[in-house]
UniProtKB/TrEMBL annotation, chains A, B:
The species this protein was found in: Phreatobacter cathodiphilus
Name of the protein in its database record: ornithine decarboxylase
Keywords, alphabetical: Lyase, Pyridoxal phosphate
N6-(pyridoxal phosphate)lysine: modified positions: K47
UniProt lineage: Bacteria, Pseudomonadati, Pseudomonadota, Alphaproteobacteria, Hyphomicrobiales
Signal peptide span: none
Amino acid sequence: MTDRIREFLRNRRDDGPIMVVDLEVVAANFAKFARALPDTRVFYAVKANPAPEILNLLAEMGSCFDCASVVEIEQALATGVSADRISFGNTIKKEKDIARALQYGVRLFAVDCEPEVEKIGRQAEIIGAKDVKVFCRFLQDCEGAEWPLSRKFGCAAEMAPRVLEHAHRLGLQAYGLSFHVGSQQTNMGAWDQALTTASSIFATLAERGIELKMVNMGGGFPTKYLKDVPAAEAYGAAIFEALTKHFGNRLPETIIEPGRGMVGNAGIIESEVVLISKKSDEDEVRWVYLDIGKFHGLAETMDEAIRYPIRTERDGDETAPCVLAGPTCDSVDVMYEKKPYDLPVSLSIGDKVLIEATGAYTTTYSTVGFNGFAPLASVCI
Amino acid sequence: MTDRIREFLRNRRDDGPIMVVDLEVVAANFAKFARALPDTRVFYAVKANPAPEILNLLAEMGSCFDCASVVEIEQALATGVSADRISFGNTIKKEKDIARALQYGVRLFAVDCEPEVEKIGRQAEIIGAKDVKVFCRFLQDCEGAEWPLSRKFGCAAEMAPRVLEHAHRLGLQAYGLSFHVGSQQTNMGAWDQALTTASSIFATLAERGIELKMVNMGGGFPTKYLKDVPAAEAYGAAIFEALTKHFGNRLPETIIEPGRGMVGNAGIIESEVVLISKKSDEDEVRWVYLDIGKFHGLAETMDEAIRYPIRTERDGDETAPCVLAGPTCDSVDVMYEKKPYDLPVSLSIGDKVLIEATGAYTTTYSTVGFNGFAPLASVCI
């Protein structure tokens, strides 16, 4: 909670839940990444929060953009950056969307299988684009991540050389590799392990006459929720050490794709207590219902995965465990129940509640208006 | 898949996933409920699908509306129905929203605790509304339901009389009770069990001089996905028998609130195969990526809860198990993985795929545009 957000909320006159982003925090986060990994290009993962103010700020600071779709490419281009600062980072693309991206001048594409390489090869040929770079994502063990990723993206490391050779054969530039160590990764050894694999794929392809140039080290940089997380500097040092260990003095070009790590701690949701009740006289746990829930921004509480820090006007008063739920007529719209949340006993209907570290994956996860409640509003200050 | 939908899709020229609702199926469903329970008023659960065409059709057929918010009340009123055909069925309401509903003429409100009764009492007094009815939801065991509900809505049955007495004391009409047997309930004994509890609460309050008049039997009526489900007639017979058993010849006014049961089987999503790949040479299971996933309408595949029937242009060809995933750069955007889905081996990139029984809880569960993909489009024919 920054002074600027506190001031904004004090003067706020409208009603309903809102997410407030402090752009100064975003700027500070970008500066931290740039300082921690000075030779690495930062591609902000637009999907985390595509607010134009955030994209404009990052464009101005020199950031590049990792885009999941043509719309995100258009959002990035709207900042005025040139297309060479954009990566089409989704491994799952319609061929017509690849064509659109190529027409916009985008030349960097993620792949993880031969059929995707073929789509790009075909469209690059049609358009006559000569300098199209592809990087292949390989599957990486996510040990140490709070949310290990599924196997959705990436191929087995053994398959990556074949995918890149196929690109080379089709006239594309077999440019490099990518991996993702998992979200909220706090084990810095994870990058070392992935870079071991990456350097061996570099070696395999070099033997076959293909010189890879780039390693995209993905995201996974954590935001502080309730527990402390290592600082960007610590990540930078560990990653640089691993790069040197595996690539010696022939360091590849490197990319990182922070999303949560760039905007998560820059945003706060202000919400209101709609109801506090008990289910029976014997119940020890109260139910606290907010005017925001899983369907309007807090989807990442699914399985109680993220435990957001929550502040109230009554902090300091005696607390008791509460089930925390959203306002919709949907029984899954419950944020914390298995592990109830301690909140002040004095908390009352109508009180404001601040949900911290909600700058990433909230506004975009909101439904279009389930139960007639508006999508999560947001403002950048 | 009706002939009308087939015809519509054959002539469709635009691109991207779409949900098509056949209004004739909705009309047939309403007629089935009306026939199965001729003395019960049907309150359509607007949240399942608030498309204006659906609301207009149901209004014309005589349906009432169960609304979760002021916006849903406004959507119901836009059909031209009078406010006495609307229930504000959410037990979690801001006091200002209760005031708005009262101003619109709504007089039927759900509650499950004394603080909520107080909000309604206060606003009814301010507005001077004399005929405000409240019904209290009690917690009901959901055995037999495919998705037993959480404890989010309702109070313990022992607490319900006190909640309703409180309403009576505040000048509101202690009107009745509600319960919900759980979603996709196929055990018809569930209603009998809930009605046992309801009749005993009626008796308790009668002893205290309060005569309840209404039982809201909620939703829970299933849609056919892959397994067959009992017909509306079977539900009607079982419910009528239970009502007679517990209330004798003094049957209360009754209400049902079908949502999924009204529109689920009326809608079909047309989607496109974006990519088919394998993660390694040894993998037996292919990954099939569609242009729709959890974030754009298929949220109910969470934990693989609903298994939608899927049709392809290649049905009849040899099949093999596939992991089915959505198009976003989000690793949780996977529909079926723990239990892969058998799809034709001949299925190819660019093929159309039909996802059946998707008329309920799809368009409204869609995000505002996660990853830059548009919210799920829909059309009623």
